[in-house]
Amino acid sequence: MKPGAQDFAEVAKRHLDDVHAFLVYLTGDRNVAEELTAETFARALERWRRYDPRRGSARTWLCQLARSTALDHFRAEDRRRRREGRYALDVPEAQEAVFGEGLSPALEQALSRLSAAEREVLALRVLLELDGESAGRVLGISATACSTRLSRALQKLEREVSAGVAA
Amino acid sequence: MSRLELVDDRFGKLAEELRAARPAAPEALRERVRSLGTPAPRRVQLDFNFRRLVPAVGLAALAAAVGAAGVLGIVHGSTAPRRAAVGHSVPTTAAHRGLERSTEKSRAPAQVAVPFSARLSSGPRPASGRLQQYDAALRVRVRDQEELSRRTQDALRLTRRLGGYVVSARYATPGRRGDSELALRIPIDHVQTAIARFSAYGSLLSQQIVLKDLQRRADDLAARIGRLDVEIASIEQRLAGSLATEQRAALQQRLQRDRTRVASLRRARSSTLRRAQLARVSLTMVVGQKPAAVPAGRFRRTIDDAGSVLLRELELLLYALVVAGPLLAIGAAGMLAGRSVRRRSDRRLLERS
Questions:
Q1: A116 to chain B: which residues are within 8 Å by CB?
Q2: Interchain proximity B21–A74, CB inside 8 Å
Q3: B171 assigned to some structural domain
Q4: What ipTM was reported for this prediction?
Q5: Are B276 and B133 in contact (CB under 8 A)?
Q6: How far off is chain B from A83, nearest CA to CA, in Å?
Protein backbone atom coordinates (compact mmCIF):
# COMPACT_ATOMS: atom_id res chain seq x y z
CA MET A 1 0.00 0.00 0.00
CA LYS A 2 1.33 3.42 -0.94
CA PRO A 3 1.77 6.02 1.78
CA GLY A 4 -0.54 9.02 1.65
CA ALA A 5 0.42 12.70 1.50
CA GLN A 6 -0.63 13.28 5.08
CA ASP A 7 1.60 10.43 6.25
CA PHE A 8 4.73 12.28 5.20
CA ALA A 9 4.17 15.15 7.64
CA GLU A 10 3.59 12.65 10.41
CA VAL A 11 6.70 10.63 9.54
CA ALA A 12 8.82 13.79 9.28
CA LYS A 13 7.63 14.96 12.65
CA ARG A 14 8.24 11.59 14.30
CA HIS A 15 11.71 10.91 12.86
CA LEU A 16 13.25 14.35 12.54
CA ASP A 17 15.29 13.93 15.71
CA ASP A 18 16.49 10.49 14.63
CA VAL A 19 17.71 11.72 11.26
CA HIS A 20 19.29 14.79 12.79
CA ALA A 21 21.10 12.80 15.49
CA PHE A 22 22.35 10.31 12.89
CA LEU A 23 23.69 13.12 10.71
CA VAL A 24 25.33 14.88 13.67
CA TYR A 25 27.26 11.69 14.42
CA LEU A 26 28.01 11.08 10.75
CA THR A 27 29.33 14.58 10.01
CA GLY A 28 30.61 15.62 13.44
CA ASP A 29 29.34 19.11 12.69
CA ARG A 30 26.00 20.46 13.90
CA ASN A 31 25.63 23.12 11.24
CA VAL A 32 26.33 20.70 8.43
CA ALA A 33 24.03 18.16 10.05
CA GLU A 34 21.18 20.68 10.10
CA GLU A 35 21.70 21.49 6.44
CA LEU A 36 21.85 17.83 5.50
CA THR A 37 18.78 17.03 7.60
CA ALA A 38 16.79 19.64 5.73
CA GLU A 39 18.16 18.31 2.45
CA THR A 40 17.29 14.75 3.45
CA PHE A 41 13.67 15.65 4.14
CA ALA A 42 13.47 17.62 0.91
CA ARG A 43 14.62 14.50 -0.95
CA ALA A 44 12.24 12.36 1.06
CA LEU A 45 9.38 14.62 0.05
CA GLU A 46 10.31 14.23 -3.62
CA ARG A 47 10.60 10.47 -3.35
CA TRP A 48 7.80 9.83 -0.91
CA ARG A 49 5.73 8.06 -3.59
CA ARG A 50 8.50 5.52 -4.04
CA TYR A 51 8.64 4.59 -0.38
CA ASP A 52 7.33 1.06 0.15
CA PRO A 53 6.52 0.28 3.82
CA ARG A 54 6.82 -3.45 3.09
CA ARG A 55 10.53 -3.09 2.38
CA GLY A 56 11.42 -1.44 5.65
CA SER A 57 10.34 1.12 8.21
CA ALA A 58 10.14 4.82 7.40
CA ARG A 59 12.98 5.46 9.84
CA THR A 60 15.27 3.03 8.00
CA TRP A 61 14.33 4.58 4.67
CA LEU A 62 15.01 8.10 5.99
CA CYS A 63 18.35 7.02 7.41
CA GLN A 64 19.30 5.55 4.03
CA LEU A 65 18.41 8.85 2.39
CA ALA A 66 20.32 10.76 5.08
CA ARG A 67 23.41 8.64 4.57
CA SER A 68 23.21 9.08 0.81
CA THR A 69 22.85 12.85 1.27
CA ALA A 70 25.81 12.92 3.64
CA LEU A 71 27.95 10.89 1.23
CA ASP A 72 27.16 13.36 -1.55
CA HIS A 73 28.21 16.14 0.80
CA PHE A 74 31.46 14.36 1.71
CA ARG A 75 32.27 13.74 -1.93
CA ALA A 76 31.62 17.36 -2.84
CA GLU A 77 33.79 18.50 0.07
CA ASP A 78 36.51 16.08 -0.91
CA ARG A 79 36.53 17.43 -4.49
CA ARG A 80 36.50 21.02 -3.26
CA ARG A 81 39.43 20.42 -0.94
CA ARG A 82 41.45 18.72 -3.62
CA ARG A 83 40.68 21.49 -6.07
CA GLU A 84 41.62 24.23 -3.65
CA GLY A 85 44.59 22.40 -2.14
CA ARG A 86 43.33 23.16 1.32
CA TYR A 87 42.89 19.67 2.59
CA ALA A 88 45.28 20.05 5.49
CA LEU A 89 44.19 23.56 6.37
CA ASP A 90 40.45 23.03 6.28
CA VAL A 91 40.03 21.34 9.62
CA PRO A 92 36.81 22.51 11.27
CA GLU A 93 37.19 24.38 14.46
CA ALA A 94 36.34 22.46 17.61
CA GLN A 95 32.74 23.00 18.57
CA GLU A 96 31.29 22.73 22.03
CA ALA A 97 28.95 19.80 22.63
CA VAL A 98 28.69 18.62 19.05
CA PHE A 99 27.44 15.14 19.89
CA GLY A 100 24.96 16.12 22.56
CA GLU A 101 24.36 18.32 25.55
CA GLY A 102 25.71 16.92 28.80
CA LEU A 103 28.31 14.56 27.36
CA SER A 104 31.51 14.36 29.36
CA PRO A 105 34.39 16.19 27.66
CA ALA A 106 36.32 12.92 27.45
CA LEU A 107 33.47 11.20 25.60
CA GLU A 108 32.93 14.22 23.36
CA GLN A 109 36.64 14.21 22.45
CA ALA A 110 36.65 10.46 21.98
CA LEU A 111 33.70 10.67 19.60
CA SER A 112 35.37 13.37 17.60
CA ARG A 113 38.43 11.16 17.21
CA LEU A 114 36.36 8.34 15.71
CA SER A 115 35.90 8.20 11.94
CA ALA A 116 32.55 8.94 10.36
CA ALA A 117 32.24 5.24 9.51
CA GLU A 118 32.61 4.34 13.18
CA ARG A 119 30.28 7.05 14.43
CA GLU A 120 27.51 6.14 11.95
CA VAL A 121 27.26 2.60 13.24
CA LEU A 122 27.19 3.93 16.83
CA ALA A 123 24.42 6.32 15.90
CA LEU A 124 22.31 3.66 14.23
CA ARG A 125 22.71 0.90 16.78
CA VAL A 126 23.15 2.81 20.05
CA LEU A 127 21.41 6.14 19.58
CA LEU A 128 18.57 5.11 17.25
CA GLU A 129 18.53 1.55 18.57
CA LEU A 130 17.96 0.02 15.16
CA ASP A 131 18.28 -3.75 15.01
CA GLY A 132 21.25 -5.29 13.19
CA GLU A 133 19.30 -6.03 10.03
CA SER A 134 17.89 -2.51 9.66
CA ALA A 135 21.22 -0.89 10.48
CA GLY A 136 22.91 -3.21 7.98
CA ARG A 137 20.39 -2.17 5.33
CA VAL A 138 21.20 1.49 5.93
CA LEU A 139 24.93 0.81 5.71
CA GLY A 140 24.67 -1.63 2.80
CA ILE A 141 26.23 -4.48 4.75
CA SER A 142 25.05 -7.67 6.46
CA ALA A 143 23.77 -7.75 10.05
CA THR A 144 26.85 -9.73 11.09
CA ALA A 145 29.22 -7.22 9.54
CA CYS A 146 27.24 -4.48 11.24
CA SER A 147 27.67 -6.14 14.64
CA THR A 148 31.40 -6.52 14.05
CA ARG A 149 31.68 -2.89 13.07
CA LEU A 150 29.71 -1.81 16.15
CA SER A 151 31.88 -3.86 18.46
CA ARG A 152 35.07 -2.37 17.03
CA ALA A 153 33.69 1.16 17.21
CA LEU A 154 32.70 0.72 20.86
CA GLN A 155 36.09 -0.73 21.74
CA LYS A 156 37.83 2.15 20.09
CA LEU A 157 35.52 4.64 21.78
CA GLU A 158 36.28 3.09 25.12
CA ARG A 159 40.02 3.23 24.47
CA GLU A 160 39.77 6.85 23.42
CA VAL A 161 37.74 7.72 26.52
CA SER A 162 40.27 5.97 28.76
CA ALA A 163 43.13 7.75 27.02
CA GLY A 164 41.32 11.09 27.38
CA VAL A 165 40.67 10.57 31.08
CA ALA A 166 44.29 9.51 31.68
CA ALA A 167 45.55 12.61 29.87
CA MET B 1 14.47 -5.25 21.86
CA SER B 2 16.04 -4.11 25.10
CA ARG B 3 19.04 -1.88 25.23
CA LEU B 4 21.13 -4.57 26.87
CA GLU B 5 20.64 -6.84 23.89
CA LEU B 6 21.86 -4.15 21.55
CA VAL B 7 25.13 -3.43 23.17
CA ASP B 8 27.61 -5.54 25.04
CA ASP B 9 27.26 -5.20 28.81
CA ARG B 10 30.77 -3.79 28.99
CA PHE B 11 29.64 -0.81 26.98
CA GLY B 12 26.26 -0.42 28.67
CA LYS B 13 27.28 2.64 30.66
CA LEU B 14 28.88 4.22 27.63
CA ALA B 15 25.75 3.60 25.57
CA GLU B 16 23.51 5.03 28.28
CA GLU B 17 25.55 8.20 28.40
CA LEU B 18 25.41 8.58 24.63
CA ARG B 19 21.65 8.09 24.59
CA ALA B 20 21.10 10.48 27.46
CA ALA B 21 22.95 13.22 25.62
CA ARG B 22 21.43 12.48 22.23
CA PRO B 23 21.38 15.61 20.07
CA ALA B 24 17.94 17.04 19.39
CA ALA B 25 16.90 18.97 16.32
CA PRO B 26 16.64 22.73 16.93
CA GLU B 27 13.28 24.45 16.53
CA ALA B 28 14.48 26.29 13.43
CA LEU B 29 15.16 23.00 11.69
CA ARG B 30 11.75 21.66 12.68
CA GLU B 31 10.13 24.73 11.20
CA ARG B 32 12.19 24.34 8.05
CA VAL B 33 11.12 20.74 7.59
CA ARG B 34 7.49 21.61 8.33
CA SER B 35 7.62 24.28 5.66
CA LEU B 36 8.55 21.69 3.02
CA GLY B 37 4.85 21.05 2.58
CA THR B 38 3.14 17.89 1.46
CA PRO B 39 4.07 15.56 -1.40
CA ALA B 40 2.56 16.17 -4.83
CA PRO B 41 -0.43 14.00 -5.74
CA ARG B 42 0.62 10.62 -6.97
CA ARG B 43 0.72 10.09 -10.74
CA VAL B 44 -0.48 6.57 -11.02
CA GLN B 45 0.53 5.92 -14.60
CA LEU B 46 4.15 6.99 -14.24
CA ASP B 47 4.80 5.23 -10.97
CA PHE B 48 6.99 2.44 -12.30
CA ASN B 49 8.53 -0.03 -9.95
CA PHE B 50 10.96 -2.34 -11.70
CA ARG B 51 10.65 -5.02 -9.06
CA ARG B 52 6.98 -5.30 -9.92
CA LEU B 53 7.32 -4.44 -13.57
CA VAL B 54 9.66 -7.32 -14.45
CA PRO B 55 7.38 -10.15 -13.23
CA ALA B 56 4.36 -8.35 -14.72
CA VAL B 57 6.07 -8.11 -18.11
CA GLY B 58 7.13 -11.76 -17.82
CA LEU B 59 3.57 -12.86 -17.08
CA ALA B 60 2.22 -10.73 -19.91
CA ALA B 61 4.77 -12.24 -22.33
CA LEU B 62 3.86 -15.75 -21.18
CA ALA B 63 0.16 -15.02 -21.61
CA ALA B 64 0.82 -13.57 -25.08
CA ALA B 65 2.88 -16.62 -26.07
CA VAL B 66 0.20 -19.06 -24.90
CA GLY B 67 -2.52 -16.90 -26.46
CA ALA B 68 -0.73 -16.76 -29.82
CA ALA B 69 -0.19 -20.52 -29.73
CA GLY B 70 -3.88 -21.02 -28.93
CA VAL B 71 -5.08 -18.73 -31.70
CA LEU B 72 -2.74 -20.25 -34.29
CA GLY B 73 -3.72 -23.71 -33.10
CA ILE B 74 -7.40 -22.93 -33.56
CA VAL B 75 -6.87 -21.30 -36.96
CA HIS B 76 -4.68 -24.12 -38.31
CA GLY B 77 -6.62 -26.85 -36.57
CA SER B 78 -9.80 -25.81 -38.33
CA THR B 79 -8.27 -26.33 -41.78
CA ALA B 80 -7.97 -29.69 -43.55
CA PRO B 81 -5.87 -32.39 -41.88
CA ARG B 82 -2.22 -31.88 -42.61
CA ARG B 83 -1.46 -35.50 -43.28
CA ALA B 84 -3.42 -35.43 -46.47
CA ALA B 85 -1.32 -32.53 -47.65
CA VAL B 86 1.90 -34.20 -46.63
CA GLY B 87 0.91 -37.35 -48.46
CA HIS B 88 0.93 -35.58 -51.78
CA SER B 89 4.24 -33.85 -51.46
CA VAL B 90 7.48 -35.71 -51.80
CA PRO B 91 10.78 -33.85 -51.80
CA THR B 92 12.47 -33.61 -55.16
CA THR B 93 16.02 -33.61 -53.83
CA ALA B 94 18.46 -36.18 -55.07
CA ALA B 95 18.40 -38.01 -51.76
CA HIS B 96 15.29 -38.05 -49.70
CA ARG B 97 13.39 -40.13 -47.21
CA GLY B 98 9.64 -40.05 -47.06
CA LEU B 99 7.55 -41.51 -44.30
CA GLU B 100 3.96 -42.11 -45.00
CA ARG B 101 1.45 -43.51 -42.57
CA SER B 102 -0.94 -44.24 -45.31
CA THR B 103 -4.26 -45.69 -44.47
CA GLU B 104 -6.03 -44.53 -47.56
CA LYS B 105 -6.17 -47.96 -49.07
CA SER B 106 -8.52 -49.38 -46.47
CA ARG B 107 -10.73 -46.34 -46.46
CA ALA B 108 -10.66 -45.45 -50.14
CA PRO B 109 -9.07 -48.20 -52.25
CA ALA B 110 -9.67 -46.45 -55.51
CA GLN B 111 -7.53 -43.52 -54.47
CA VAL B 112 -4.42 -45.48 -53.54
CA ALA B 113 -2.76 -45.94 -56.89
CA VAL B 114 -3.26 -42.38 -57.97
CA PRO B 115 -1.59 -40.51 -55.13
CA PHE B 116 1.42 -42.81 -55.14
CA SER B 117 1.87 -42.57 -58.88
CA ALA B 118 1.38 -38.87 -58.79
CA ARG B 119 3.88 -38.58 -55.95
CA LEU B 120 6.48 -40.65 -57.71
CA SER B 121 6.08 -38.90 -61.02
CA SER B 122 7.30 -35.78 -59.26
CA GLY B 123 10.12 -37.62 -57.52
CA PRO B 124 13.75 -37.79 -58.61
CA ARG B 125 14.30 -39.34 -61.95
CA PRO B 126 17.62 -40.21 -63.60
CA ALA B 127 18.98 -37.45 -65.76
CA SER B 128 19.00 -38.36 -69.42
CA GLY B 129 22.39 -38.12 -71.10
CA ARG B 130 24.35 -38.53 -67.89
CA LEU B 131 25.55 -41.62 -66.14
CA GLN B 132 24.00 -41.92 -62.72
CA GLN B 133 23.86 -44.43 -59.94
CA TYR B 134 20.30 -44.92 -58.69
CA ASP B 135 19.63 -46.60 -55.34
CA ALA B 136 16.12 -46.99 -54.02
CA ALA B 137 14.81 -48.58 -50.85
CA LEU B 138 11.09 -49.05 -50.32
CA ARG B 139 9.15 -50.47 -47.43
CA VAL B 140 5.54 -51.33 -48.09
CA ARG B 141 2.87 -52.79 -45.86
CA VAL B 142 0.56 -55.29 -47.55
CA ARG B 143 -2.80 -56.48 -46.36
CA ASP B 144 -2.16 -60.16 -45.55
CA GLN B 145 0.03 -63.14 -46.27
CA GLU B 146 -1.80 -63.95 -49.47
CA GLU B 147 -1.21 -60.43 -50.69
CA LEU B 148 2.43 -60.70 -49.65
CA SER B 149 2.93 -63.81 -51.73
CA ARG B 150 1.13 -62.37 -54.73
CA ARG B 151 3.03 -59.07 -54.57
CA THR B 152 6.39 -60.78 -54.15
CA GLN B 153 5.84 -62.87 -57.26
CA ASP B 154 4.62 -59.84 -59.13
CA ALA B 155 7.74 -57.89 -58.16
CA LEU B 156 10.00 -60.68 -59.40
CA ARG B 157 8.08 -60.97 -62.67
CA LEU B 158 8.09 -57.25 -63.21
CA THR B 159 11.83 -57.01 -62.58
CA ARG B 160 12.56 -59.63 -65.23
CA ARG B 161 10.07 -58.14 -67.65
CA LEU B 162 11.77 -54.76 -67.36
CA GLY B 163 15.14 -56.35 -68.19
CA GLY B 164 16.50 -56.59 -64.69
CA TYR B 165 17.34 -59.43 -62.40
CA VAL B 166 16.95 -60.52 -58.80
CA VAL B 167 20.07 -60.40 -56.66
CA SER B 168 18.45 -61.93 -53.61
CA ALA B 169 15.00 -62.72 -52.32
CA ARG B 170 13.84 -63.66 -48.87
CA TYR B 171 10.28 -64.55 -48.07
CA ALA B 172 9.01 -65.59 -44.65
CA THR B 173 5.52 -65.95 -43.18
CA PRO B 174 5.78 -66.93 -39.52
CA GLY B 175 2.35 -67.19 -37.90
CA ARG B 176 0.00 -64.52 -39.10
CA ARG B 177 2.74 -62.14 -39.91
CA GLY B 178 5.23 -62.17 -42.77
CA ASP B 179 7.72 -60.23 -44.78
CA SER B 180 9.72 -60.44 -47.95
CA GLU B 181 12.94 -58.69 -48.81
CA LEU B 182 13.99 -58.39 -52.42
CA ALA B 183 17.27 -56.99 -53.75
CA LEU B 184 16.73 -56.14 -57.39
CA ARG B 185 18.66 -54.69 -60.30
CA ILE B 186 16.44 -52.85 -62.75
CA PRO B 187 17.51 -50.96 -65.87
CA ILE B 188 17.69 -47.36 -64.91
CA ASP B 189 15.37 -46.32 -67.74
CA HIS B 190 12.57 -48.38 -66.20
CA VAL B 191 13.24 -47.87 -62.53
CA GLN B 192 10.58 -45.24 -62.08
CA THR B 193 7.97 -47.53 -63.57
CA ALA B 194 9.03 -50.27 -61.18
CA ILE B 195 9.00 -48.02 -58.14
CA ALA B 196 5.58 -46.67 -59.02
CA ARG B 197 4.30 -50.22 -59.26
CA PHE B 198 5.98 -51.38 -56.05
CA SER B 199 4.64 -48.38 -54.17
CA ALA B 200 1.12 -49.29 -55.16
CA TYR B 201 1.39 -52.76 -53.61
CA GLY B 202 0.14 -51.38 -50.28
CA SER B 203 0.79 -48.65 -47.81
CA LEU B 204 4.15 -47.05 -48.39
CA LEU B 205 5.90 -46.96 -45.02
CA SER B 206 9.18 -45.46 -46.15
CA GLN B 207 10.97 -44.60 -49.31
CA GLN B 208 14.55 -43.59 -49.83
CA ILE B 209 16.09 -42.74 -53.16
CA VAL B 210 19.73 -41.80 -53.66
CA LEU B 211 21.05 -40.48 -56.94
CA LYS B 212 24.79 -40.23 -57.51
CA ASP B 213 26.40 -38.80 -60.60
CA LEU B 214 28.90 -41.18 -62.25
CA GLN B 215 29.55 -39.25 -65.45
CA ARG B 216 32.62 -37.49 -64.14
CA ARG B 217 34.19 -40.68 -62.89
CA ALA B 218 33.47 -42.45 -66.21
CA ASP B 219 34.95 -39.56 -68.18
CA ASP B 220 38.01 -39.50 -65.95
CA LEU B 221 38.55 -43.23 -66.39
CA ALA B 222 38.13 -42.93 -70.17
CA ALA B 223 40.69 -40.13 -70.31
CA ARG B 224 43.23 -42.10 -68.30
CA ILE B 225 42.69 -45.18 -70.47
CA GLY B 226 43.18 -43.06 -73.59
CA ARG B 227 46.45 -41.62 -72.27
CA LEU B 228 47.76 -45.07 -71.39
CA ASP B 229 46.74 -46.43 -74.84
CA VAL B 230 48.77 -43.70 -76.49
CA GLU B 231 51.71 -44.44 -74.22
CA ILE B 232 51.49 -48.18 -74.94
CA ALA B 233 51.41 -47.55 -78.70
CA SER B 234 54.50 -45.36 -78.36
CA ILE B 235 56.36 -48.02 -76.38
CA GLU B 236 55.39 -50.72 -78.87
CA GLN B 237 56.67 -48.53 -81.69
CA ARG B 238 59.99 -48.01 -79.94
CA LEU B 239 60.30 -51.70 -79.19
CA ALA B 240 59.87 -52.46 -82.90
CA GLY B 241 63.12 -50.60 -83.62
CA SER B 242 66.67 -51.44 -82.55
CA LEU B 243 67.41 -50.88 -78.88
CA ALA B 244 70.10 -51.73 -76.39
CA THR B 245 69.34 -54.81 -74.31
CA GLU B 246 68.91 -52.92 -71.01
CA GLN B 247 66.74 -50.26 -72.63
CA ARG B 248 64.55 -52.89 -74.30
CA ALA B 249 64.13 -54.71 -71.01
CA ALA B 250 63.12 -51.49 -69.23
CA LEU B 251 60.61 -50.61 -71.97
CA GLN B 252 59.10 -54.06 -71.91
CA GLN B 253 58.72 -53.81 -68.15
CA ARG B 254 57.02 -50.47 -68.50
CA LEU B 255 54.77 -51.80 -71.27
CA GLN B 256 53.71 -54.68 -69.06
CA ARG B 257 52.90 -52.31 -66.20
CA ASP B 258 50.89 -49.98 -68.46
CA ARG B 259 48.90 -52.87 -69.89
CA THR B 260 48.05 -54.06 -66.40
CA ARG B 261 46.92 -50.57 -65.41
CA VAL B 262 44.84 -50.18 -68.58
CA ALA B 263 43.13 -53.50 -67.92
CA SER B 264 42.35 -52.45 -64.36
CA LEU B 265 40.99 -49.09 -65.48
CA ARG B 266 38.84 -50.76 -68.15
CA ARG B 267 37.36 -53.07 -65.53
CA ALA B 268 36.62 -50.09 -63.30
CA ARG B 269 34.98 -48.26 -66.18
CA SER B 270 32.88 -51.27 -67.09
CA SER B 271 31.77 -51.54 -63.49
CA THR B 272 30.87 -47.85 -63.43
CA LEU B 273 28.89 -48.18 -66.64
CA ARG B 274 27.07 -51.21 -65.29
CA ARG B 275 26.19 -49.29 -62.13
CA ALA B 276 24.84 -46.51 -64.30
CA GLN B 277 22.74 -48.92 -66.29
CA LEU B 278 21.12 -50.86 -63.49
CA ALA B 279 19.40 -49.28 -60.53
CA ARG B 280 19.68 -51.03 -57.19
CA VAL B 281 16.26 -51.43 -55.67
CA SER B 282 15.61 -52.87 -52.25
CA LEU B 283 11.95 -53.73 -51.75
CA THR B 284 10.68 -54.82 -48.36
CA MET B 285 7.09 -55.86 -47.90
CA VAL B 286 5.61 -56.60 -44.50
CA VAL B 287 2.32 -57.94 -43.27
CA GLY B 288 1.12 -56.33 -40.10
CA GLN B 289 -1.71 -54.78 -38.26
CA LYS B 290 -2.38 -51.30 -39.34
CA PRO B 291 -1.97 -48.69 -36.71
CA ALA B 292 -5.10 -47.14 -35.35
CA ALA B 293 -5.98 -44.95 -38.27
CA VAL B 294 -8.41 -42.67 -36.61
CA PRO B 295 -8.15 -39.32 -38.33
CA ALA B 296 -7.05 -36.61 -35.98
CA GLY B 297 -10.01 -34.59 -34.75
CA ARG B 298 -10.19 -30.84 -34.76
CA PHE B 299 -9.41 -30.63 -31.04
CA ARG B 300 -6.38 -32.86 -31.45
CA ARG B 301 -5.13 -30.82 -34.40
CA THR B 302 -5.62 -27.62 -32.45
CA ILE B 303 -3.63 -29.01 -29.54
CA ASP B 304 -0.91 -30.27 -31.91
CA ASP B 305 -0.62 -26.91 -33.67
CA ALA B 306 -0.62 -24.97 -30.42
CA GLY B 307 2.09 -27.29 -29.11
CA SER B 308 4.17 -26.72 -32.25
CA VAL B 309 3.85 -22.95 -31.89
CA LEU B 310 4.81 -23.11 -28.22
CA LEU B 311 7.79 -25.28 -29.09
CA ARG B 312 8.86 -22.77 -31.72
CA GLU B 313 8.49 -19.93 -29.24
CA LEU B 314 10.58 -21.87 -26.75
CA GLU B 315 13.26 -22.36 -29.39
CA LEU B 316 13.30 -18.64 -30.11
CA LEU B 317 13.50 -17.87 -26.40
CA LEU B 318 16.40 -20.26 -25.96
CA TYR B 319 18.12 -18.74 -28.98
CA ALA B 320 17.65 -15.26 -27.57
CA LEU B 321 18.99 -16.40 -24.20
CA VAL B 322 22.03 -18.01 -25.82
CA VAL B 323 22.73 -14.83 -27.78
CA ALA B 324 21.91 -12.31 -25.06
CA GLY B 325 22.93 -14.44 -22.06
CA PRO B 326 26.63 -13.57 -22.11
CA LEU B 327 25.82 -9.87 -22.56
CA LEU B 328 23.38 -9.97 -19.65
CA ALA B 329 25.93 -11.80 -17.51
CA ILE B 330 28.59 -9.23 -18.34
CA GLY B 331 26.14 -6.41 -17.59
CA ALA B 332 25.15 -7.97 -14.26
CA ALA B 333 28.81 -8.56 -13.34
CA GLY B 334 29.56 -4.93 -14.25
CA MET B 335 26.71 -3.68 -12.10
CA LEU B 336 27.81 -5.81 -9.13
CA ALA B 337 31.42 -4.70 -9.55
CA GLY B 338 30.34 -1.06 -9.80
CA ARG B 339 28.24 -1.38 -6.65
CA SER B 340 31.11 -3.01 -4.79
CA VAL B 341 33.54 -0.31 -5.90
CA ARG B 342 31.08 2.42 -4.88
CA ARG B 343 30.58 0.88 -1.44
CA ARG B 344 34.30 0.59 -0.91
CA SER B 345 34.78 4.16 -2.03
CA ASP B 346 32.03 5.33 0.37
CA ARG B 347 33.63 3.43 3.21
CA ARG B 348 37.04 4.96 2.53
CA LEU B 349 35.46 8.39 2.33
CA LEU B 350 33.72 7.93 5.68
CA GLU B 351 36.89 6.59 7.29
CA ARG B 352 38.77 9.67 6.12
CA SER B 353 36.09 12.03 7.37
A1: 350-351, 353
A2: no
A3: yes
A4: 0.84
A5: yes
A6: 16
